[in-house]
Design goal:
Elements (H helix, E strand, L loop, with lengths): L10 E6 L16 E2 L2 E2 H9 L6 E4 L4 H8 L5 E3 L9 H11 L4 E6 L9 H11 L6 E8 L10 E12 L3 H9 L5 H5 L4 E5 L15 H10 L6
Parallel strand pairs: 1-4, 1-6, 4-5, 7-9
Antiparallel strand pairs: 2-3, 6-8, 7-8
Helix pairs in contact: 3-5
Length: about 220
């Protein structure tokens, strides 16, 4: 409820690995390896110290994900809607299974996301007077940066901390045909959590292709979960 600070036990972390992987040739992106382990498991391990319960949203290879997630105590949840309707379907899947007041969603394909992501988000929530419904990460957009230009600071809407009371709003939005994250979040009280320190330069660099995934491995050869 409004006016109460957040602790990790108030937050369920959900790694989104339910997409088509179209730009990777249709492979299951969460099962592609980063420094020797599947992207989805790398994300779970990096997220685990920051939150309470863990979820992983996947729509293919359920047995593989369940086996990989078991040592971390993560539960598997699949989209309630068919045909890969996008990240919002993963948000909704997590919200429907979440048993804590808040849900944090992150994509599986951004392996260098901040190790203090939750701390930064909860600080933004407190600075907003603890009145927000959604906290959205903002960081440097390395994918859209032009040659010789510094990446712009942009919203990273898939990195989203949500009140679980928003599940009915999101379900109605999706079933009415809505798919854009910004359109839905714009209906609610949002605050930005800005990650713009030197160490955050590649925090939101994502791997849409196998080549980009290999580039991230080369850029951070000692990266650990």
């Amino acid at each position: 409820m409004d006016g109460l600070p957040l602790s990790p036990s108030d937050i369920t972390g959900c790694v989104l690995a339910g997409g088509r992987g179209s730009r990777m040739g249709g492979v299951d992106k969460g099962l592609q390896t980063f420094h020797g382990q599947p992207l989805a498991i790398h994300a779970l391990k990096r997220l685990a110290p920051q939150v309470g319960p863990l979820l992983i949203n996947a729509n293919r290879h359920a047995d593989a994900y369940a086996e990989l997630a078991l040592p971390l105590g993560a539960q598997l949840c699949s989209d309630a809607l068919p045909d890969y309707p996008g990240p919002l379907a993963g948000f909704l899947s997590g919200l429907l299974q979440c048993q804590t007041p808040w849900l944090l969603c992150i994509p599986c394909d951004t392996p260098l996301f901040p190790a203090d992501l939750v701390a930064g988000m909860t600080q933004a929530y407190q600075l907003a007077g603890m009145q927000a419904d959604i906290i959205i990460a903002h960081g440097r957009d390395t994918e859209r940066a032009g040659p010789g230009q510094p990446p712009e600071l942009r919203s990273q809407p898939v990195f989203c901390l949500l009140r679980t009371t928003l599940k009915d709003s999101l379900r109605e939005f999706i079933t009415s045909g809505g798919r854009k994250i910004d359109t839905w979040t714009g209906q609610h009280r949002c605050v930005a959590a800005v990650f713009d320190r030197p160490e955050d330069a590649q925090a939101f660099s994502n791997a849409n292709t196998l080549a980009q995934l290999h580039d991230l491995e080369q850029a951070m050869p000692t990266a650990k979960a």
